[in-house]
Input
Amino acid sequence: MLERLKGLARTLKADLHALALAARDPRTPWTARVVAVLVLAYALSPIDLIPDFVPVLGYLDDLLLVPAGLWLALRLIPPDVLADARAHAAAQPARLPSSALGLAFMLLVYAALIAVLVSWWLRRTHAAG
Output
């Protein structure tokens, strides 16, 4: 079981690396690039949508959102581009550092969530008062 999980983690890391390469390929459609950049930004961001210290839910986003986004992004990339990206990724060591773009993206998501919550709270308290 543990070996299977390690294998899945290696596959996920290799696919993220291939996705990063495919997103830069000019043959990749713009919709696939947008999805790829969003998935990579989230996956490589040092900040999660749900912080890891939150019991159960903290790891649930990593276990569901990243693989689901990766699956979608890989389906949007043409097969020949994906095959080339996977071959190139296999030929070089996978380096997936933290992403400054991912950090900025997640900070914007948090700011938007806070703005929505504050707006909702203000409308609710204004309507009650």
Helices lie at 2-24, 30-44, 57-76, 79-91, 100-128. Residues 60 and 120 are 26 Å apart (CA to CA). The chain has five helices and no strands.
